[in-house]
Known about the structure:
Blueprint: E1 4-7, H1 14-25, H2 29-38, E2 47-52, E3 55-69, E4 72-84, H3 93-105, E5 112-117, H4 121-125, E6 129-134, E7 136-140, E8 153-155, H5 161-170, H6 183-192, E9 195-200, E10 204-212, E11 218-225, H7 229-243, E12 247-251, H8 256-261, E13 268-269, E14 275-281, H9 287-291
Parallel strand pairs: 4-5, 11-12
Antiparallel strand pairs: 1-2, 2-3, 3-4, 5-14, 6-14, 7-12, 7-13, 8-9, 9-10, 10-11
Amino acid sequence: MPRLEVRVPLEYELDQMLQVMCDAFDLPFDAAKTVFYTDPCFDITHKRVLLAEGRIVSCLTLVPARMRIGADALPIVGVAGVATSPELQGQGLASHLLKQTMESLQDGPYAAAILVTSSPSLYKRLGWTVVGCDTRFWVQADALGHKPARPRVRRATEKDWPRIEEIHSRTLGLHHGALIRDRMRWDYVRRFVQTVLVCRDATVSGYAFLQHDEAAPLCRVLEAEAQSPRALCDLLRAAAEATGAEVLEVPEAPGRIDSLESMGIPCDHVQEAPVTVLAIVLREEHGAALRQAELALSPADHF
């Protein structure tokens, strides 16, 4: 059994950590390096690495945040970028790293650790509990009808962001499981969301965050808020036009599918494995509240 050590990486080891992530997730190193070091949330003290005989073989990143749980905003810590060198996967290294990291957080300020994954089985074996699911549905672009004579959707400008933040704070930001977006969190969202659309009447009344691949016919709507089904339809139609997508993947929200289908727009649930939200409760006094309902964590806030 090799000698294992879990700790915060030293500064000169960060490139080694990034290389493990790139190898595990099949990412180009140079492009990932720019994103890694310019992340608004970057903090070396929130990185964890597992060394085997002095070599970094597994890693993860902790993301402190506040999450709305019922009427409270509780301190939580997200777990992101869990990765192991491909040739060493399946040997329990990531499990060891996670266990040691969670033990180190037991006496800390966090109510829970939160992790988002499409492969929950590993984490459930380690004691993580499913507390939410990122349910999505598909809409065909050609089902959204023709562009109105006076379109009210356009790309967002710098001046629109205060209004976008205000709309979020009064709507999606109040949901059970929503992250409280401080300035750093908003900077993160603004940096990594590819395209932002706004729906404007007398003032900005809705918005949509989009992610898309120019080589694929699919556009993911990471987050959308609109005052009416018609306004949502306008946002989705504009999203398809802006990205050239044939299909839109939209996050579910209470009543959203019913309202679109009432307008004659068919919606199909995404068939592949859903993205699952898991938690480990670190302060049991908050355990019941964390488990009382599914956490509505926006895809724009995934760790």
